[in-house]
Amino acid sequence: MKHQELVKEINFLLDTVEKKREKQRKKLKCYLSQVKAEKQKLRKKLTRESSTTNRKKLKKELDAANKVYSMLNA
Length: 74
Known about the structure:
Order of helices and strands: HH
Helix content: over 70%
Number of helices: 2
Distance between the termini: 44 Å
Largest sheet: none
Number of strands: 0
Shape: rod-shaped
Strand content: under 5%
Radius of gyration: 22 Å
Low-confidence stretches: none
């Protein structure tokens, strides 16, 4: 009997871990898509901007977004 109880407990724990991993994957995928959309928006703004000071700010924001994307995608 004890053996069966241990097997059930291990199976339950494995299922719980898998569910948590799946939630984390979904959140990560969501964050990646948000960062990707932000990168695209910043690129559009950058191509339309003519002021050098505003372009520098946009480039810094784009660099930050690229770093975040690479960190999340690692």
